[in-house]
Specification:
By secondary structure, this protein is α+β, with helices and mostly antiparallel strands. It has nine helices and 13 strands. The chain binds (3R)-3-hydroxy-3-methyl-5-(phosphonooxy)pentanoic acid.
């Protein structure tokens, strides 16, 4: 009787404070720049991978459905794991997000982090973190950061990347308030959007040239727990990325009217002395990052902002983890 192997893993989405947008040339889905992120412990992806020799092909479902591009990237990750384990069995992948999927809440990051942890767990592979991070990155450039808890740094190193934790949630327990402004999936995915920006935005070279200084300063602000410095820098880095997106041809305008209203609400709060800053990824949601104690006021202000349809709150979270090894 051929063996069925299954495992379930949980991973949290992450939000970059210093972002990446663009790839290095060549294979491996290598980002053009480093990035620095926080993990949102209040949102989760739960993924079960079941290797079943009776299957003729991988079956991938994300919240009950999956597009061909995601399924193909999942299969590519599973192929690597199958190769390492010497087990050719195809797999059923059932991945569920308890938050909006494909809408700028980094569901691909938590999705691929949970996938590699569950897949390796099911196959009984004990891979070093660096190997898991490499596998996850092939699926989504931001996924290695979701393998770690708290603050994570993803850097270019030689012809690959390294990813390391920088601080635990307990070291600097920031809170995040997400202003949800639309629920649909984004019109252009990150991978295609980045490729288009690199080809067509006149600001892309400036984004790449100024990025290392942003990353170094962001890292210093996190290490020094300097919220004011991090606030100024993270907002600048975010708007610089969106300037590249907006000047891409055709333009990548991920914002909705509610995005701009929420951004202004956060700026007004900070001008009024509330320790909060905004960041926005490839989608219309605004993430308001708060010092402990500020989240109540921020959540109330964002909930009352025109165009904001929901407000999610999240503490920083922990690393991706296996729930049920073996089957
Ligand atoms: O590699 P992806 O598809 O997860 O792209 C991530 C792109 C941004 O979220 C906009 C930036 C980032 O560093 O997370």
């Amino acid at each position: 009787m051929p063996e069925i192997l299954a495992a379930t893993a949980v991973a949290h989405p992450n939000v970059a404070l210093i972002k990446y947008w663009g790839k290095r040339p060549g294979p491996g889905n290598l980002p053009a720049t480093g990035s620095l992120s926080i993990v949102l412990g209040g949102l989760a992806t739960t993924t079960t991978v079941t290797f079943d020799p009776a299957l003729a092909a991988d079956e991938v479902s994300v919240n009950g459905a999956a597009d061909a591009d995601t399924a193909q990237r999942v299969s590519a990750c599973l192929d690597e794991l199958r190769g390492l384990a010497g087990n050719p069995a195809r797999a059923r992948v059932d991945s569920r997000n308890d938050f909006p999927t494909g809408a700028g809440l980094a569901s691909s990051a938590s999705g691929f982090a949970a996938l590699v942890v569950a897949g390796a767990g099911a196959l009984g592979l004990r891979l070093p973190e660096a190997r898991l991070a490499d596998l996850a990155r092939r699926g989504s450039g931001s996924a290695p950061r979701s393998l770690y808890g708290g603050f994570a740094l993803l850097r270019n190193a030689g012809d690959g990347t390294t990813c390391e934790p920088v601080a635990d949630p307990a070291d600097w327990p920031l809170e995040v308030v997400v202003a949800v402004t639309t629920r649909g999936p984004k019109p252009v995915g990150s991978r295609n959007g980045m490729a288009q920006s690199e080809l067509t935005s006149p600001y892309y070279p400036a984004w790449i040239a100024t990025h290392p200084a942003d990353l170094d300063a962001g890292l210093a602000a996190v290490r020094g727990r300097d919220f004011a410095a991090l606030a100024e820098l993270a907002e600048h880095n975010c708007l610089k990325m969106h300037a590249v997106m907006m000047t891409t041809r055709p333009p990548l305008i991920y914002w909705s009217p509610g995005t701009l209203a929420a951004l202004q609400a956060v700026r007004e709060l900070r001008a009024g002395g509330v320790p909060v800053f905004f960041t926005i990824d490839a989608g219309p949601q605004v993430k308001a990052v708060c010092l402990p104690g500020a989240a109540d006021r921020v959540a109330a202000a964002l909930a009352a902002t025109s165009g904001v349809i929901d407000v999610l709150r999240s503490p920083l979270g922990g690393a991706a983890r296996l729930l049920s090894p073996g089957a």
